[in-house]
Design brief:
- This protein is about 70% helix and about 0% strand.
- By secondary structure, the chain is mainly α.
- The relative contact order is 0.11.
Amino acid sequence: MVEEEEKKEKGFNNGFLEECSSLLDRATKTALKKNSDVFLYMASYLEATNDIEGAEKAFAKAQELNPKLVEIFIQKAYFEKRRISLEKSISTFEEAMTICSENHSDVSFLALSLAKLLIHKNASENNEKIIELLEKGLKLTPSNSNIWTEYLKFLCREQPDNENARNFFERFMKCDSLDDSDKFSLSAWYLDEVTNRCGNVSWYRELNYRFLTHFPNDPPVVKPSSTKKRSIEDEANENNKRQRTEGDGLAATGAGYGAQPTPEQWAMMYA
């Protein structure tokens, strides 16, 4: 019974891959050959069939069509992490930050994505590089709560009452670029970490007092999306859409764009 199921699954997978191959082959021979999305899908297909060299060529073609599209760099970098080496992946992220240097939101997003990749590797030799990347992100987009959150979690990975984490708490509480709702979320998370993970009673009492003093009433109301500061992902996604319109053949008509994930979703999918 198990053997039959395996045969069915193998047959289905083979049929699916054959169909993908046929569709992609036809797409590259039509007007879609000027759309970088086609070559991103081609790269995913070729990786699935273990054609690593072919996948690299597909990524190169996608970048030729749209040299500043963030999601191409992200997909390529995570492909390299899986199939080639971490060093090659890091190199692609750094190349992307150089190429996209004029757009602060793109660079900040790429810096955060690379920092997450290195944090996930959990190697202490990467700590200096991680801090450098997170600081770059905050310098370029100081209002982005995702970077502040990732930074705080990174500093708290061993003990949340260490000096660096304490100083960082003071720093984000004094940051004028952060909304009170963001400060509340960060403070509440940090207070919970101190409560559950360390026995430093004096720091807990001081932190709790600071928290209640700064937020004496109900939690701050999150501003409506129309007035709240735009996130780095909003800006990066908007920039990607603009680049598609400028760089892709059928993208100007919207072809293929609507179904594409945002840069943040690409990063999550390929992490």
